[in-house]
Amino acid sequence: MDARRLGYRALLTSGYLKRAAVGYLDEHSRVNPPRDWYVRALDYATAEVKGAVAPLTPLRTAPGVGSADGFQLADSLEEYARSTRSQVIVPVEVWDALVAAAEDPDDLERLGMAAQTRGYYRYMHLFCRPAAAQGRGIALYLVMRNLEEQGRAEEAIALRIAAAEAGDTEEMEHLARHWEREGRIDKAKAVWRRAAEEGNAAAQNGLAGVLARDGDTSAAEKWWGTAAETGHAQAMRKLAESLETRGLARDAEHWLRRAVDAGEWWAPHRLTRLLTESGRADEAVEIWRPRAALNDTEAFLELARALETAGDPSAAAEWWQRAIDKGSTKAVFGLQNLLFRYGNTEDAYGIVARAIAAGDTKVIEELCKRNGGEITLIRGVESGLQRACATGSWAARHVLSDFLCADGRPAEAVALWLPAAEAGDFASMSCLIRLMYLCENHREVERWESRMVESGDGSAMASRAHALREVGRLHEAESWERRALETGYTINPPVNLEYLLREMGRTAEADRLHAYGIEPGGRTADPW
Question: Alpha-carbon distance 427 to 203, whole Å?
Answer without folding.
Answer: 46
